[in-house]
Amino acid sequence: MTTENHKLWGGRFEAGLEKWVEEFGASISFDQKMAEFDLKGSIAHVTMLGETGIITQEEARQIKAGLDELLDEYKAGQLEFDISNEDIHMNLESLLTEKIGSVAGKLHTARSRNDQVATDMHLYLKTKLTEVIEKLHHLRQVLVNLADEHTYTIMPGYTHLQHAQPISFGHHLMAYYNMFTRDSERFEFNQMHTNLSPLGAAALAGTTFSIDRQRTAQLMDFSQPYSNSLDAVSDRDFILEFLSNASILMMHMSRICEEIINWCSNEYRFVTLSDTFSTGSSIMPQKKNPDMAELIRGKTGRVYGNLTGLLTVMKSLPLAYNKDLQEDKEGMFDTAETITVAIDILAGMLDSMTVNDSHMAESTEKDFSNATELADYLAVKGLPFRQAHEIVGKLVLECTKAGYYLQDVPLERYREISELIEEDIYKTLESKTAVERRNSLGGTGFDQVKWQVEEARKNL
Ligand code: ARG
């Protein structure tokens, strides 16, 4: 069953699409998220058409007034879109026609949906990038504050998830601060490639009308127009960069969330999440679950998926526009929405959690994470480090069998092991001393952590 064709592009068609085929091709269900940007792009375009005399000033004024009204109505939630108008571009054009009559038909002069949709995507992402960078700024601030507060809080540092050497909790947090700073810088770089205007590339080859692309770029607050029309309508690198930056960000968030999940388990009890960021169990009354941290970890999967999805869509696409490109949107929207809320959740969770600092520090007292201190102690006194390592290793084995730790070994036993060992060994073996003395640049020593915090504050 076919119907008559009333599409904006219907001129060369005798029959219309069947409803279910039309639905398959339509993007209005999701691209309506770009309505505001589509209208702003159209306002810039029509302003330029009027200024260059491609249409009259009066026509431009009427069209612009109509677009302004549509923008207000959109913001007030009053616009209704229709699937038979396929996408946001044709929906808005047909709403404009209803409003101002046939003069609306002049808006699409010297433009195509191909440069129009690319413009919308750039405008959308420009806004989102600013938002993401701001939210990351807040998260980094939260981390620095927490690191400042916990510069002197001692925790076990791990390798292979085994106690390795005691560290400052502030140092641990500052590692994440650095990751999120690099994430932010990657999004800033991403802004450069998003800040280009495709408008005026038209369908693929530019236009015979004497348009002013610099002017529309300026009106939309882009740094400059794309210099190649084919590239302008088919480039989605700016979205791929976004998705890949978002994937790296999610990987970082997933890592800290995994740590938080561990830290609030009964085995660690390093932190207690606030009630506002935890949930209970429908069957086990005692449960307090770190659901939000788990969800961030889980949502990392969908963000990676969106990156893989678009990379696959783009692979082998010939120039210039192909309808495959309509598949670029949902993953971008989903990623932007996922990361913006995930950053806020993580910041809120960190900001409101209780750090059980004494418990954290205690857990470095009942382990062998001071073994390196003993080996270094001997090495400083002239014993080759390899030999020191061997001696300490044997002593650790002896302690393990006897059920005590290096700090419990009596001085007589130490003197038997090596004449180099003196009374000051006990102070050396304390976690606090171990942390304090790791004062090499970028180490966990308290002074180094304080320096990191100060530097971060200067940058924020
Ligand atoms: N909805 C389309 C998209 O998202 C807009 C561009 C359509 N252009 C075309 N020649 N069919 O890509």
TrEMBL record:
UniProt-annotated location(s):
Cytoplasm
Residue ranges constituting the Fumarate lyase N-terminal domain according to the UniProt record:
11-305
**Biological or metabolic pathway of the protein:** Amino-acid biosynthesis; L-arginine biosynthesis; L-arginine from L-ornithine and carbamoyl phosphate: step 3/3
Record-linked InterPro entries = Arg_succ_lyase_C (IPR029419), Argininosuccinate_lyase (IPR009049), Fumarase/histidase_N (IPR024083), Fumarate_lyase_CS (IPR020557), Fumarate_lyase_fam (IPR000362), Fumarate_lyase_N (IPR022761), L-Aspartase-like (IPR008948)
Indicate the enzyme's highest-level EC class. lyase
Q: TM spans, by residue?
A: none
| Key words of the record | Amino-acid biosynthesis, Arginine biosynthesis, Cytoplasm, Lyase
Reactions catalysed, semicolon-separated, are: 2-(N(omega)-L-arginino)succinate = fumarate + L-arginine
Q: Which GO terms describe its molecular function?
A: argininosuccinate lyase activity
Per the record, a Pfam family?
ASL_C2
| Every Argininosuccinate lyase C-terminal domain range | 368-436
Annotated EC = 4.3.2.1
Family classification: Belongs to the lyase 1 family. Argininosuccinate lyase subfamily.
Query: What NCBIfam families does the annotation carry?
Result: argH
- Which named protein is this? Argininosuccinate lyase
Provenance organism: Streptococcus dentapri
